[in-house]
């Protein structure tokens, strides 16, 4: 049994009750579990993770966002919806946060409403390491994270045991039942503990809970680890149904349809096109390399004051573009990490990016390295290639980097890349195509091209809060067609990569759980 003091609690450094973000705390769970697996030589498939209250939200979000290959998770009284007895408390806290920045909210819950166990009550009241405060950013992000995890619980395929306290004064039970109902696994249990307060694992009769936990663990270890079959997710899955629904028009007089139509028309007026970002999106597609490069630069431009104001809102008020910029940072982090690993292993650093756009994140990532043997950037678009070649000349990298036109889904073309890549990159491409046959062709080519023990860095988009707006309003690079995307759960994306011959090593995710960046190692080919 292993446990740790979560960030901002117990003996950890820093302010009490504070974390930079829920995304940071979720990543802490990932780091801790991977540390335990590595340090104590425990296979991930032999690990069960237990979380209670806010900890249960962190664990469920980690399983949703990272798709770890553990054996199971056990959740007790997950705080998917904390009872705030003051009307409009959440809205008020959001407003105060905008005015005051980060501040702390004290817990109103008395120990006697957490458990019937007198010893636990005394401990809660007297233990100096117990934190009653919570930073407002974490409290508000807790609601947002819980909402998306409950709404998208169908992405979770892990065996799960859920405990709901029957007399919980802290959290509402309705989202707990909704979460359980949508879990996409045949191996799940729900237990309602009659009379229990919120501290399910610390209740007076907690032996009843632990007996059920032992039975559950015995059962899941008595059979092979459950693995969801992702082979037909692009045809038969919740995300496939969601994708097909987005291809059909909304009713003509539906308020949502009228709203989206107004947005489209507004963007196409001279007032909308006064924004440089909107203009580029309308001309090249909002999913194009030109748009991405503009979003990366994050410098509002436009015609006059109005154009710059609209562009600032377009670039910085849009959660999707903020996530894209964080994805760039995460991509650069893992590129640098892969280069370090290759240097340590005395392998050449031969990089290939099969859909580089303008290549900006590559140029920025390699600034700190003098010893890079070769870089090949490819893209389908002549416009992107020409712009990328201009960047190469600007940075005096013509002796090291080539930029050519290439098909990212042509297996043979990718497999024949020379010199043999030791680091392959595919960023923001697979998210644009629903059909997994294309993805398999691309990954097969990368697996054939990349040297054994080389690395692949790939991206994912398991969730997006603006998916419908994007599909109904924005145009793509493909002949101005609507930009309709099918979400791939992280489990599906990882399964495609693993089937091609790679073993996932690490993942970074933005604070909103939208964009993921993962690194995988090319393993020995199985005969």
UniProtKB/TrEMBL annotation:
<dbReference type="InterPro" id="IPR051044">
    <property type="entry name" value="MAG_DAG_Lipase"/>
</dbReference>
<dbReference type="InterPro" id="IPR022744">
    <property type="entry name" value="MeTrfase_dom_put"/>
</dbReference>
<feature type="domain" description="Methyltransferase">
    <location>
        <begin position="213"/>
        <end position="522"/>
    </location>
</feature>
<dbReference type="InterPro" id="IPR029058">
    <property type="entry name" value="AB_hydrolase_fold"/>
</dbReference>
<dbReference type="InterPro" id="IPR022742">
    <property type="entry name" value="Hydrolase_4"/>
</dbReference>
<dbReference type="Pfam" id="PF12146">
    <property type="entry name" value="Hydrolase_4"/>
</dbReference>
<feature type="domain" description="Serine aminopeptidase S33">
    <location>
        <begin position="2"/>
        <end position="205"/>
    </location>
</feature>
<dbReference type="Pfam" id="PF12147">
    <property type="entry name" value="Methyltransf_20"/>
</dbReference>
<dbReference type="InterPro" id="IPR029063">
    <property type="entry name" value="SAM-dependent_MTases_sf"/>
</dbReference>
<protein>
    <recommendedName>
        <fullName>Methylase with S-adenosyl-L-methionine-dependent methyltransferase domain and alpha/beta-hydrolase domain</fullName>
    </recommendedName>
</protein>
């Amino acid at each position: 049994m292993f446990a740790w003091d979560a960030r901002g609690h117990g003996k950890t450094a820093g302010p009490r009750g504070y974390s930079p973000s829920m995304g940071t705390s979720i990543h802490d769970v990932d780091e801790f579990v991977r540390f335990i697996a590595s340090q104590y030589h425990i296979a991930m498939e032999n690990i069960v993770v237990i979380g209670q209250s806010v900890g249960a939200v962190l664990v469920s979000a980690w399983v949703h966002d990272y798709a770890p290959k553990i054996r199971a998770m056990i959740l007790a009284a997950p705080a998917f919806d904390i009872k705030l007895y003051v009307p409009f408390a959440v809205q008020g806290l959001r407003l105060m946060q905008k005015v005051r920045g980060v501040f702390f909210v004290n817990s109103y819950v008395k120990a006697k409403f957490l458990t019937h166990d007198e010893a636990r009550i005394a401990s809660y009241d007297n233990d100096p390491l117990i934190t009653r405060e919570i930073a407002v950013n974490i409290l508000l992000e807790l609601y947002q994270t819980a909402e998306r995890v409950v709404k998208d619980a169908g992405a979770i395929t892990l065996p799960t045991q859920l405990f709901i306290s029957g007399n919980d004064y802290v959290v509402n039970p309705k989202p707990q039942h909704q979460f359980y109902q949508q879990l996409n696994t045949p191996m799940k249990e729900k237990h309602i503990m009659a009379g229990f307060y919120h501290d399910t694992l610390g209740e007076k009769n907690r032996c009843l809970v632990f007996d059920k936990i032992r039975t559950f663990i015995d059962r899941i270890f008595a059979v092979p680890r459950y693995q969801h079959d992702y082979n037909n997710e692009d045809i038969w899955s919740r995300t496939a149904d969601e994708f097909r629904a987005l291809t059909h028009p909304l009713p003509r007089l539906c308020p949502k349809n009228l709203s989206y139509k107004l947005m489209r028309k507004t963007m196409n007026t001279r007032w909308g096109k006064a924004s440089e970002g909107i203009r580029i999106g309308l001309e090249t597609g909002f999913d194009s390399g030109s748009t991405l490069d503009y979003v990366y630069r994050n410098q509002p431009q436009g015609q006059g004051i109005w154009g710059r104001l609209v562009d600032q809102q377009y670039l910085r008020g849009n959660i999707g573009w903020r996530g894209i910029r964080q994805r760039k940072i995460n991509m650069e982090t893992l590129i640098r990490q892969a280069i370090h690993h290759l240097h340590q292993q005395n392998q050449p650093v031969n990089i290939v990016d099969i859909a580089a756009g303008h290549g900006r994140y590559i140029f920025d990532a390699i600034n700190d390295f003098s010893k890079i043997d070769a870089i090949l950037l490819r893209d389908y678009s002549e416009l992107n290639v020409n712009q990328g070649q201009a960047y190469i000349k600007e940075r005096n990298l013509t002796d090291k980097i080539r930029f050519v036109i290439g098909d990212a889904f042509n297996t043979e073309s990718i497999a024949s890349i020379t010199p043999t890549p030791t680091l392959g990159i595919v960023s923001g491409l697979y998210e644009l195509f629903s059909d997994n046959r294309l993805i398999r062709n691309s990954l097969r080519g990368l697996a054939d091209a990349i040297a054994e023990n080389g690395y692949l860095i790939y991206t994912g988009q398991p969730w997006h809060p603006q998916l419908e707006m994007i599909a109904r309003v924005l145009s793509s690079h493909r002949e101005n067609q609507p930009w309709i995307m099918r979400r791939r759960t992280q489990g599906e994306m990882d399964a495609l990569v693993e089937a091609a011959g790679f073993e996932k090593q690490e993942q970074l995710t933005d604070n909103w759980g939208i964009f993921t960046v993962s690194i995988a190692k090319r393993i020995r080919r199985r005969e």
